[in-house]
Amino acid sequence: MRTQVRKAQVTRRIGVLIPATNTIVERELWALRPDDIDIATARIDVPNNSIGSDSAEQSLVNDILSGVPAALDTLMTARPSCILLAMSAASFRDGARGLRHLEAELSERSGVSVVGGAQALIEALQELSQVRRVATITPYRITNLANVRGFLEQMGYDVVAERSLDCATAQSIAQVPTSQIVAALRSLADEPIDAILQVGTNLAAAHLEPHSMEWAGVPLITINRALLRAGLRRV
Amino acid sequence: MTAIDVPTRLHVGVMVPSVNTVTEGELHDLAPDGVSIHLERIPVQQVDVSDDETTMTLLGEVRDGLRACVRRIASCDPDHIVLGMSAPVFHGGKEGSLAAVAGLQAECAPVVSAAAHGVVAALELLGKRRIAVLTPYQRVHDEQVERFFADYGFTITSLESTRSTTTHAIAETPDEEVVESLTRLAASGPDAIVQVGANLGMAHLVEEAESWLGLPVLALNVVGLWHALRSSGVTIRRDGYGTVWRDL
Predict the structure, then answer these.
(1) Which of A207, A143, A135 is nearest to A222 (CA)?
(2) What is the pLDDT of residues A196-234, one digit of tens each?
(3) B21–A1: do the CB atoms touch at under 8 Å?
């Protein structure tokens, strides 16, 4: 059995904000965290769950962003020492500068360090040496894909391939089977890439990250592992 | 701890007051493979609970936030929703507790249950009628705890509270203090010991305490998740968390 959380030993707590519909971030972060790190989660109200079209996907992103402040205030009562915005599309939407602005604004509101999903991916990319050309695996449509691509290009990376998994609702992203994600990874094996980024925190991919050399021949960065590492650097 | 490469067979939503920092970790540790825990917080600001009045202010904040919270947690499509916190359920005895659950059930599709009713169900399965109770509460809540268990036909041999003065102090109750309380409660001659107050976590003490005391020890968070699984037809047993998870 895993070592249990003993209250007296827990000194550092990472706060995590997720869209209310998300069912993957919690289990991945709890399973991968070091034993002396506590996690406190709060959910952002998502009134509409459809992502069946590009416009529906954008209204979900808008709902998530407008729900962040209220969820952050709730989460701060659990006294975390840093905050992860465990959402991808919303963190990519306004580019690198937009995300820095959002993180600064929320950091001022909460008094602790705040990091968005896109920033966590960039930090993970920067830990790898000599990466320039990347591929992405996402559950996204046109606008979100363009935002992810634009953000990465702003940060100096070339997006040379994209694999998009079609999902009808925010909840159904979590149902994408491992076999489908592995098939997407394998399909990237012949692309001229240095790394693969998995984007979309409700896509259960963290368990594949250690095996990506077998499937795709290049490193895979999964967003929830990247977020956890970003949190551990700040907590 | 549920494995991350195993498909989920049961999603359990859990509601706690936002200041609770114990239930989330205990339930993720406890969840067997294939069981996913999804937590949501009821926004509260009242941290001082040093007397009856402040305790009731906190209860008011919890009640005000319950309905919005159950709708948020329901939006991740859980199979079952557990009211992790116990105080709002204990108020008004058996009848009040059932009404509190029914009120939230009307707001969402997943089955809603209270951890406190899980404790009653486990005690009934164990055939234990005389209980001693550990709480973190002020008198105003302790009276309701006594009434709740009395309504269900249990005899309370002793009730002891840590009388914690802040919500954070509840979460930081030293293990030594819990152990001393359990020892005194066991001396009152109960058939089982019950711990309530979700933020007074003692999941890591249950197994050892049972072996020292020779009695079942029913901790609210531990029994609340067991009850959610059994209510959903999942019969996975686990060692390391006492009689309830091992035998029932």
Answers:
(1) A207
(2) 999 999 999 999 999 989 888 999 999 999 999 999 999
(3) no
Q: CA-to-CA distance for B39 and B31, rounded, in angstroms? A: 13
A195: helix, strand or coil: strand
The number of C-alpha atoms within 13 Å of B228 and in the hemisphere containing its C-beta is 33
Tell whether A213 is within 8 A of chain B (Cβ): no
CA distance A223 to A19: 15
In which region does residue A31 sit, left (phi positive, over 0), alpha (psi from -120 to 50) or beta (all else)?
A: alpha
Contact at CB, A78 and B21, closer than 8 angstroms: yes
- pTM exceeds cut of 0.90: yes
> CB distance A43–B8 less than 8 Å?
no
C-alpha A175: how far from chain center: 17
Q: Which two tokens stand for residue B182?
A: 């359990």
- Could you tell me if B176 lies within 8 Å of chain A, comparing CB atoms? no
Determine whether the interchain pair B201/A10 forms a contact, defined as Cβ–Cβ distance below 8 Å. Answer: no
CA distance B111 to chain A (A): 17
Mean pLDDT, each 10-residue run in order, chain B (248 residues): 85 97 96 96 97 97 96 96 91 96 96 96 98 98 97 98 96 96 98 97 96 97 97 94 97
CA distances from A137 to A115, A141, B86, B154 (A): 21, 11, 43, 57
Amino acid identity of residue B197, one-letter, is: G
Burial class (CB in 10 A: 0-12, 13-18, 19+), B109: exposed
pLDDT in tens, A124-136: 999 998 999 999 9
Interface residue B207 vs chain A (CB under 8 A):
no
d(CA A121, CA A229): 10
Please answer yes or no on whether A27 and B73 come within 8 Å at the CB atom. Answer: no
Cβ distance B43 to A10 less than 8 Å, yes or no, reads no
Could you give the C-alpha distances from A203 to A15, A175, B18, B58, B115, in angstroms and in order?
20, 8, 26, 37, 30
Query: Nearest by CB to A31, which of B1, B45, B203?
Result: B1
Tell me, yes or no, if B63 comes closer than 8 A to chain A by beta carbon. no
- Asked if ipTM goes beyond 0.85, one says yes
**Separation in Å, CA of B160 to nearest CA in chain A:** 21
Shortest Cα distance, chain A CAs vs residue B218, angstroms = 18
Structure tokens at A41: 């989660």
Question: CB–CB of A41 and B76 under 8 A?
Answer: no
Strands A195-198 and A220-222: parallel
Rounded CA separation B73/B12 (Å): 10
